[in-house]
TrEMBL record:
<feature type="transmembrane region" description="Helical">
    <location>
        <begin position="465"/>
        <end position="482"/>
    </location>
</feature>
<keyword id="KW-1133">Transmembrane helix</keyword>
<feature type="transmembrane region" description="Helical">
    <location>
        <begin position="167"/>
        <end position="185"/>
    </location>
</feature>
<dbReference type="InterPro" id="IPR002797">
    <property type="entry name" value="Polysacc_synth"/>
</dbReference>
<feature type="transmembrane region" description="Helical">
    <location>
        <begin position="46"/>
        <end position="68"/>
    </location>
</feature>
<dbReference type="InterPro" id="IPR050833">
    <property type="entry name" value="Poly_Biosynth_Transport"/>
</dbReference>
<feature type="transmembrane region" description="Helical">
    <location>
        <begin position="494"/>
        <end position="515"/>
    </location>
</feature>
<keyword id="KW-0812">Transmembrane</keyword>
<dbReference type="Pfam" id="PF01943">
    <property type="entry name" value="Polysacc_synt"/>
</dbReference>
<feature type="transmembrane region" description="Helical">
    <location>
        <begin position="88"/>
        <end position="109"/>
    </location>
</feature>
<feature type="transmembrane region" description="Helical">
    <location>
        <begin position="336"/>
        <end position="354"/>
    </location>
</feature>
<feature type="transmembrane region" description="Helical">
    <location>
        <begin position="429"/>
        <end position="453"/>
    </location>
</feature>
<feature type="transmembrane region" description="Helical">
    <location>
        <begin position="191"/>
        <end position="216"/>
    </location>
</feature>
<dbReference type="InterPro" id="IPR024923">
    <property type="entry name" value="PG_synth_SpoVB"/>
</dbReference>
<feature type="transmembrane region" description="Helical">
    <location>
        <begin position="245"/>
        <end position="265"/>
    </location>
</feature>
<keyword id="KW-0472">Membrane</keyword>
<dbReference type="GO" id="GO:0005886">
    <property type="term" value="C:plasma membrane"/>
</dbReference>
Length: 541
C-alpha cells in the first residue's frame, strides 16, 4: 500500500472516529436540555432516520469510490466523470423520493409506534418530529456520492473534514436550537425536539458545503485529468455500471442497516407488548432506556469492530482468489482473535461500570433502570461485532448473498420472539430477543465461512478459551476495585462517577494487558506491533 493511500486511510479513519465520538457525547448536554420526555420523543424519529441514512451511506460511497478508482487506474477518466455526473442526478432523485416517502408516511410510522392513548407521546407529536428529520434525506445521498468521488481519487481529506464539520454543525444547531426554544422563547418540548431532529438537515448542508469547497478548489486538477483520458472504453453503459455498483454496495448496506432494523422492530412492538401486560405507564421509559440511551453507549466497541471489519475485505479476497488457503486461514484466525481480544474485555468492563457510566451520560434519571439495562445489554455488543466481521468475511470470499439470508433469519427470530419475551421480562426480554436474533445470523455466517472458505475454527476456539479466562480474571479484579472505591466515593456525584470509570477501567485494562503479555498471547495476535507498543508505553512486564 502506498504511503499516500496509508495517509489517506488514516485521515479518513480519524475523521470517522472524531465524528462518532461527537455523536456519542452530545447526548449528555442534550439530555440535560430536553429531559426524559424529549429524549423519548427524539428516539422515535432516530431509528427510522438511521435506517434511511444507513441505506444512503453504508454502501454507495464505497462502491462509487471503488469504480471511480478502477476506471481512473485504466486511464478512463471520462468514464468515471460520466459516472459521477449521472450519479449526482440519481442521488438527487433518490433523496427527494425518500424525503417525500418519509414525510408523508410519518403519520403511519407514528401510529405503529404509539398504539395506546395513555403514553406520554402522541401520534401528532411523533409525526411532527419524524417530518422534521426527513429533510436531511434530501441532502445526504448527494453528499455521500461526492464523498465517494473524492475517495475514488484517493483523496480522503475532504470526506474526513466533511464528516467532522457535519457533526459539529448538527450538534451546535441541535443544542442551541433546543435550548433557545425552551429557555428563551418558552416553547414546548415538541418544538424543541423537532428543531433537534431538523439539525440533521442543517449538519448535512454544512458537510456538503465543505465538499463543494474542495471541489471548486481542485476542479482544475480534476479537469486536467480528462485531458489524459485514453478513451478506449466507449461501449460501457451507465445501466451496466449501476447494476455492478448496486451488487457491490448491497452487502455493505445490509450490514449497515442490521442494527437499525433490530431497533425498528423494538420501536414498533415494545409499546404494544407492554400494553398487553398493563405496563403502558412505564413502556416509553423502558423503550428509551435500551433502544436509545444505553444503545448509544453499547455501540462504542461495535464501531471499532465495524471499522476493523471493513479492512478485512481486500486482504481476505486477495488470499481467497489466489487460492492461498494458508493465508486465508491465517487472516481469518487473526480477524476473529483480535476481534474477541478487543471487544470481549471492553463489553464486560462496560457491564461492570454500568452504573457510573450511565450516570455520567444521563444523570440520576431512571438510574436503576438504566444501570440494569446497560449491564445486561453491554455483552450483546460482542454479537453486534461478530455479525459485522463475519458479514465482511462473506464479502471477502465472494459469498455476500448469504449476508441477506442470515440477516433475514436473524430479523425473523427477533420478530417472532420479541413480544412474548417483552411480555415476560419487559426491556430485558427485548434485549434477549436481539441476542438470539443476532446469534442465529452469526451461526449462518460462520457455517458459510466454514464450508466455502474451508476454514477450521479449532485455533480460534482454543484461543477464545484463553481470552475468556483473562477476561474473567479482569472482571474479578475490576469488581474488587469497584467495590473498594464504593466505600470512599459518593455514587451520586458526577466527579465520583468519572473517577470510578477512570480508575476501575485503568486497573482492569492493566490487569488484562499484563496477562496478555505474560502469556505471550498479544505477540501471537499483533506480532512486532506488540513489542513496539510495549516499548512506547514502557510497560514493565
Amino acid at each position: 500500500m502506498s504511503s499516500k493511500l496509508l495517509r489517506g486511510t488514516f485521515i479518513l479513519t480519524l475523521g470517522t472516529m472524531i465524528s462518532k465520538a461527537l455523536g456519542l457525547f452530545y447526548v449528555i448536554p442534550f439530555n440535560m436540555i430536553v429531559g426524559k420526555e424529549g429524549t423519548i420523543l427524539y428516539q422515535y424519529s432516530y431509528v427510522a432516520y438511521t435506517i434511511v441514512i444507513s441505506i444512503a451511506t453504508a454502501g454507495i460511497p464505497l462502491a462509487v469510490s471503488k469504480f471511480i478508482s478502477k476506471y481512473n487506474a485504466m486511464g478512463e477518466y471520462g468514464v468515471s466523470r460520466r459516472l459521477f455526473k449521472s450519479g449526482l442526478l440519481v442521488m438527487t432523485c433518490t433523496g427527494v423520493v425518500c424525503f417525500l416517502a418519509m414525510y408523508f408516511l410519518a403519520p403511519f410510522l407514528a401510529e405503529i409506534n404509539i398504539p395506546e392513548d395513555d403514553l406520554d407521546s402522541s401520534v401528532k407529536d411523533v409525526t411532527t418530529v419524524i417530518r422534521a428529520v426527513s429533510f436531511a434525506v434530501i441532502v445526504v445521498p448527494v453528499m455521500s456520492l461526492i464523498r465517494g468521488f473524492f475517495q475514488g481519487h484517493e483523496s480522503m481529506g475532504p470526506s474526513a473534514v466533511s464528516q467532522v464539520v457535519e457533526q459539529i454543525v448538527r450538534i451546535i444547531f441541535m443544542l442551541a436550537g433546543a435550548a433557545a426554544v425552551l429557555y428563551i422563547f418558552k416553547g414546548d418540548i415538541v418544538t424543541a425536539v423537532s428543531i433537534s431532529t431538523f439539525a440533521a438537515f442543517v449538519g448535512a448542508i454544512g458537510g456538503l458545503a465543505v465538499l463543494i469547497y474542495y471541489w471548486v478548489k481542485r476542479k482544475k486538477h480534476f479537469n486536467s485529468m480528462l485531458d489524459e483520458d485514453k478513451q478506449q472504453i466507449t461501449d460501457i453503459s451507465l445501466g451496466s455500471m449501476y447494476k455492478e455498483i448496486l451488487i457491490s454496495a448491497a452487502p455493505f448496506v445490509f450490514v449497515g442497516i442490521a442494527n437499525p432494523l433490530f431497533q425498528f422492530i423494538d420501536t414498533i412492538t415494545f409499546n404494544r407488548a407492554m400494553a398487553v401486560v398493563g405496563l403502558s405507564a412505564v413502556s416509553e421509559t423502558q423503550l428509551n432506556a435500551f433502544n436509545y440511551q444505553t444503545h448509544k453507549i453499547v455501540i462504542i466497541p461495535v464501531s471499532l469492530a465495524t471499522a476493523f471489519s471493513m479492512t478485512l475485505v481486500p486482504m481476505i479476497t486477495r488470499a481467497f482468489v489466489s487460492g492461498d488457503q494458508k493465508s486465508v486461514n491465517h487472516n481469518l484466525n487473526q480477524a476473529f482473535q483480535i476481534l474477541l481480544f478487543i471487544t470481549l474485555p471492553a463489553t464486560i468492563g462496560l457491564s461492570v461500570l454500568a452504573e457510573p457510566v450511565y450516570r455520567l451520560f444521563y444523570g440520576t434519571t431512571d438510574l436503576a433502570l438504566g444501570t440494569e439495562v446497560l449491564r445486561l445489554y453491554a455483552p450483546v455488543a460482542i454479537l453486534f461485532s461478530l455479525y459485522a466481521v463475519t458479514a465482511a468475511i462473506l464479502q471477502g470470499i465472494n459469498e455476500q448473498r448469504f449476508t441477506v439470508l442470515s440477516l433475514l433469519v436473524g430479523l425473523l427470530v427477533k420478530l417472532s420472539l420479541n413480544m412474548p419475551l417483552i411480555e415476560r421480562w419487559e426491556a430485558n426480554g427485548a434485549i434477549l430477543a436481539t441476542a438470539l436474533g443476532y446469534s442465529a445470523a452469526i451461526i449462518i455466517n460462520i457455517f458459510v465461512i466454514k464450508v466455502f472458505a474451508q476454514y477450521p475454527f479449532r485455533l480460534v476456539l482454543r484461543r477464545s478459551v484463553l481470552i475468556i479466562g483473562f477476561t474473567f480474571l479482569m472482571y474479578v479484579g475490576a469488581e474488587i476495585v469497584y467495590k473498594l472505591l464504593g466505600l470512599f466515593l459518593k455514587p451520586e456525584s458526577v466527579i465520583s462517577s468519572l473517577l470510578m470509570v477512570g480508575i476501575v477501567g485503568l486497573a482492569g485494562g492493566l490487569l488484562y494487558i499484563y496477562l496478555a503479555y505474560r502469556s505471550k498471547l498479544v505477540y501471537l495476535l499483533l506480532g512486532e506491533r506488540a513489542a513496539s507498543i510495549k516499548r512506547k508505553l514502557r510497560l514493565p512486564f
